[in-house]
Design a protein that fits this description.
Length: about 130
Amino acid sequence: MSAQLDRVTIPADGSESVELGGLGIVWKIEGAEADGRFSVVHHPLAPRALAAPLHRHTQEDEYSYVLEGTLGALLGEEVITAGPGTWVRSSRPQASRTSSVSSPTSMQPKAAPISPASQTSAPATR
């Protein structure tokens, strides 16, 4: 049975949200709502806030779109900064870490669809 919600639009404020220090989490599309194919989360970040400590995704690629401010990221061995309108990709199983650089930053990570061959019963490492 599908857990999809019957909605055509997603309000600007999302649905469920939480604030963890300088990291905001606003769920736009949860994995269950998309039948486990992907999820979309909006992360407003305070200046110099750590969005995600060093972690590794084992089942999905992660794409982040910078809405405002500047995002800093460690992607494997590469350190990058990204401004508004930039997409940042963290591929599995690459280790990554993201944070805002100086100004308030807003990014919207999107987990890429998971191919059936890559699905396992083990949870993704975050």
